[in-house]
Structure formats: C-alpha cells, structure tokens
Amino acid sequence: MLKRMNKAMLFASLTIIVVISSCTEPDLIGLDLQPVSEIPGMSTDTLVVESYVVPEDSLIVWSPLKNLLELPTLFAGSYDDPYLGKTQAGFLAQIRLGNTITANTFAAATTPDSVVLSFLYKDLEGDSTVTHRISVYELNEKLFNDSTYYSGRTYAHSTFLGHADLIPKLNDSVNIGGVKSAPQLRLPLDTALGGKFMREYISNPATFASNTSFIDYFKGVYLVDSADGVGSIVSLPSTSSIHRLTIYFSGNKSYEFLIDVNAVRLSYFTQQYLSINTDNIPDNYLVVASMAGLKDSLSIKNLTSLYDNGPVSISAARLIFEVEDVSTVSNFDAHNNLLIFGSDSVGNNRPTADATEASGYYGGLYNSTSKTYTFNIARYLQQTVKNVVENGGKDYGLFLVAGGSTSNARRTVLKGQSGIKLIVTKTKFNP
After folding, report:
1. By 3-state DSSP, what share of the chain in percent is helix, strand and coil, each rounded to 5?
2. Which of 137, 274, 321, 404 could form a disulfide with 222 if both were Cys (CB 3.0 to 4.6 A apart)?
3. What pLDDT tens digit does each residue of the chain (431 aa) get?
C-alpha cells in the first residue's frame, strides 16, 4: 500500500525556458543568432517551478508480476549519508530442501560440526572498508510465493541463529575445504540449528518429505545488518548456486539446503531522514535515493501561461537535471538512470504518457560527459495544460525518482535552482 506524499520539505526556484517554434523539434543550435522576436510565431516565457524533497513510497519488493520483470535483489548493511540520512537494509529468505533426505543422509548423526549460511556477492555502495555486524534470526511467519510484499513491511522473527562481524570482500576468493571459490558472504550459525534438523528427521521424517512440509516447519531466515562509520550496503543477486545453508557433519560430509528461484526472498528498508530534508527551508540541491529513500516533487508554476495566446502544440519539452559534484561523496555512484512520474491527487506515483514511448524519446539516462539527466515530457505537458485550461482540471505535478530503486543502493545529488531547466518547444495553432 502506497503512502501519501509528505508535503513541502525543500523549496527551490528553477528557471524554465519556453521556446515556441515549428511542430517538429528544430536544431536549437543557432537559434540565438536571430532574435526570437524576429521569428514569426515564436516567443520565450520564463516560468517558476517549486521543488520539494519527499520520502519515496513503500515499494513492492516481491510479487508475481514484479518477478516477471525483475528478480529481487537482496540488500544488507547501513549508511549514514550527509545528504540522505540513515538507511538500513536487511533481507529474509525461505530455505528449501536440496537432495532428497533419506535415512542414509545424516547416518543417524545428531550433532553437526558446523552450519554456514552463504550468499554470492553482487555489489557494494558506500565505504568498502567498514565492518558489517550481521545477525541472523529464525523467521516466524510463512511467506507465500503468490503474495505481494512491500519494502516497509515488518516480519516476525525470534530465535537467534548466529552473528558475524566482517568486512565484505567482493574481489577476494574464499577457500572452502581447500577449494578456491567465488567471493561470498559466509555466516557461521549455531550448530544447534543443524542438530534441530537432524533430530527432527529421526523423530518425524515426513517434515522433510516435501518443501511444503519443510517450510511449514522452518519458515526461513531473517538478517539484520548494521555497518560501522558512514557505512555501506552490500547487494546480493537474486539467485546463485552459492545461496544456501550447509550443514557439515561427521568430519567430511555435508548437506545443502537451497535458496533458489522457488524460494521467497526479499529485502526490507528503514529510513531516518535528516532534518534538512523536512524543515521546509530552500536548499541548493535535490536528492534521489534508491531503496524507498528520497524522491523530488516538481510543480511547474504558471503552466497555463503556455496558453496565454491560445492553444499550442508542444513538440518537445526537455527537462534537464545537473548532477552536483558531491554526488560521489561516501563512494556513491550516480544512478544509471532516473525516472519521471506524474502525481495523483494523494501523491502516488503515476506513469506519464511519455514513459510509454521508446527510451530514445523518453530519456533519463545518465550522461557522464555532461553530468546530466535529460527527459522529454512533451506529452505530459500537452495533456496537462490542455486539461487545466480547457477542462478545468488540476495539475498535481511530477516526481523525480531513482531508477532501479529495488535493484541498487545508489543515491544521486542534483543541483537545484538554475541547475534544472525545462526547455519547451511549442507552436501556436493558426499563428
């Protein structure tokens, strides 16, 4: 369930250049060689846009539809960012049976040598040198593959299963039983968990007859992670042969429980925002953060002035954001892309008509040369100004949102005020 938009947190006056021209977008190079007043039907307007930094809505992290489009990424860690505030991420996952368990699997063993929970590394944002303090608990509620789960949901968990203090080493191989293996997160768990499984098989083998029975018995694991200092957040891929819980026993034997594509696995996020993002005082930057962090609300003032001299046809509307130099503070990468959404009357994200066009039209990719993000919102502007002027409708504004908000841990700082421009190309009907 999406949350209502929190109101004004950050105000910035943005300059908007509105250019009127032919129905097809012209080559803007050279337009300044001829005064606009000398080009028939062309004029320039300057509008004001209000901008507020607002919390992002709770995001879907698991659902059948979402998983068709993008498999879930798992996150663990925390960071204390001078532009965003405090963010913490953890995840939970079902544990499923590996090979069929028979009377010979554990050979009547009831005490394991060790139990290890392991995950393949994917990426890391923040300070790669800090220690992560990870605790693992038993999940107390059953997860359902066909359900929808949101990033802000809380989950019941109880029995403490293990803890590790470690610095994630994404580029270092791991020696497992004398074999060099891929870089991975390895968490030693209490051997009591393995003993619990072994004794359960002896007393009630039906528990291990199917994954349905086993998940009813052991619902999964719940991970909490807090990183030192400014912190970092490590991400893990959706699936991997390394994602598993392994019981080692009898000196040289082992059994692997799986965290595979059929296991429900999802992340949760918590945020503590800086007061500067809630004090309603103008600032010179905007912040966009993944993991249900921050987004920016944009309201185009005097939008109806585009119709001051009658209806117009808008052929292009380039909305340009400049990245602030501090965007890479604390080792954050700028987002590969950002997204523009419309807002409804209660502040929910709604796709714009432009977003249905090809990416070459819509834009939003990061240009590392110019350090900008550029969007075309022509259809949104055309529909909105027409609705407001001709139909008495309302303009609820736009949102600038992180791209891949549930698949990366990035945050981007953008210049406010003159660092944002909206260049609109329009033509009067019957000039």
Report:
1. 20, 40, 40
2. 137
3. 434 334 333 333 333 333 333 333 333 333 343 444 455 555 555 556 677 888 888 999 999 999 998 999 999 999 998 888 999 999 999 999 999 999 999 998 999 999 999 999 999 999 999 999 999 999 999 999 999 999 999 999 999 999 999 999 999 999 998 899 999 999 999 999 999 999 999 999 999 999 999 999 999 999 999 999 899 999 999 999 999 999 999 989 999 999 999 999 999 999 998 877 766 665 678 899 999 999 988 888 888 888 888 888 888 888 999 898 766 666 788 999 999 999 988 888 899 999 988 878 999 999 999 999 999 999 999 999 999 998 999 999 999 999 999 999 999 999 887 778 888 888 887 65
* 423 SS3 class: strand
Extended strands (E) in 37-84: 44-55, 60-62, 74-81
Give the β-pairing of 420-428 and 60-62. unpaired
Burial group, residue 272, by CB count within 10 angstroms (0-12, 13-18, 19+) = exposed
Assigned token pair, 187: 């968490």
362 — alpha (psi -120 to 50), left (phi > 0) or beta? alpha
Whether residue 226 contacts residue 79, with contact meaning beta carbons closer than 8 Å, is answered with no
Give the C-alpha distances (Å, rounded to integers) separating 308 from 119, 215, 303, 339.
60, 65, 10, 30
Cα 384 to Cα 369: distance, rounded to the nearest angstrom:
32
| Burial profile 102-138: b = 16 or more Cβ within 10 angstroms, e = fewer | eeebbeebeebeebbbbbbbbbbbbbeebbbbbbbbb
Q: What is the pTM of this model?
A: 0.85
- How buried is 336 (Cβ within 10 angstroms: 0-12 exposed, 13-18 middle, 19+ buried)? middle
One-letter identity of residue 396: Y
